[in-house]
Amino acid sequence: MRNIGLHLRLTTTLSALFTRAQELKSPIVQCFFIPQGSSTYITFDDEQIDLCLKKRDSFKELYLHASYWVNLAGRRNNGWRSFHRELELAKKLAFTHIVIHPGSATGCVTKDEGIECLARALNKILSQEGEIKIVLENTAHGNKTVGGDIADFAKLLNFLDYPEKVAFCLDSAHAYSYGYPFATVTDVEKFVQDVDLLIGAQRVALLHLNDAAQACGSRIDKHEVPGKGEIGTEALRAFMNHPKLVHTSVILEMPVLDDSQERMLLKEVQGWASLDT
Predict the structure, then answer these.
(1) Pairing between strand 4-7 and 249-252?
(2) Residue 153 needs a FRET pair 20 to 30 A away by CA distance; which of 12, 20, 85, 207 works?
(3) Could you give the 3-state DSSP secondary structure of residue 73?
(4) How far apart are CA 172 and CA 182, in angstroms?
């Protein structure tokens, strides 16, 4: 069965978030380690870690979304310490993946310099890391932000010492907001073929199946409920069920909804997989 689950906002404790995920019947989960509306990390004492680990077996995969303080493409103030802290805690809590926005080439003259900075940071991590999968996500922004253009990832792979240790996450709303047409089945087919040509579709481990609240090319990262935004149900379903991507897991990152709405939408999208695969 396809792994299709939810990104959940951390409000109190991680063990409470896990309980909510169980109640929502989400077989995989993604979250930050920063509570909603906060600017500090949640604290984990030994008791809280034990509670989380006892609930861990309920989930096939756990994805930590790295904080936006992490900017490994920057030449200065790149959030390395924050990333290392999050990575070590994710391993202690038995997370399987960590999803990273590549960041912006701050302090660099060109975006290509930022790609090289990102590669150096990843090489440092990957030379020691085999316990958790590093997943790089495409972004909605332009200028010197790395990862809006999928070709940035193709350049990055050329600089990696261990490219096999890196996977990718494709966010449909980010692709659309960046400027990739995505609202028809034909658009989706072209996008997936481009991804396959540039980085290899087999490197994609995760889809963020999000609708977009803003127009194509807006460069505004604002999600909408699947089927309620600019992309629409037909294209999102075609993306999720594309033959080159059916091996991937799927996470929904939705606006704030009540539990009954999230449960209903998760069940609906889980049903899309059974229709076409």
Answers:
(1) parallel
(2) 85
(3) coil
(4) 8
pTM above 0.85, yes or no: yes
User: pLDDT digits over 211-245, tens only?
Assistant: 999 999 999 999 999 999 999 999 999 999 999 99
Q: Kind of pairing, strands 211-212 and 223-224?
A: antiparallel
DSSP H/E element including 251: strand 249-252
DSSP 104: B
For 46-67, what is each residue's pLDDT tens digit?
999 999 999 999 999 999 999 9
- Which residues are CB-neighbours of 216 under 8 A, at least 6 positions away? 176, 177, 179, 180, 181, 182, 183, 230
The residue type found at 183 is A
As a whole number of angstroms, the distance between CA 176 and CA 211 comes to 9
Tokens of 117: 């900075």
Contacting residues for 100 by C-beta, under 8 A, at least 6 apart: 66, 70, 72, 83, 134, 135, 136, 137
Position 86 confidence tier, pLDDT thresholds 50, 70, 90: very high
DSSP 153-206: HHHHHHH-S-GGGEEEEEEHHHHHHHT---SSHHHHHHHHHHHHHHT-GGGEEE
Tell me if 22 sits within 8 A of 58, measured CB to CB.
yes
Structure token digits, residue 18: 């896990």
Residue-level length of the chain:
277
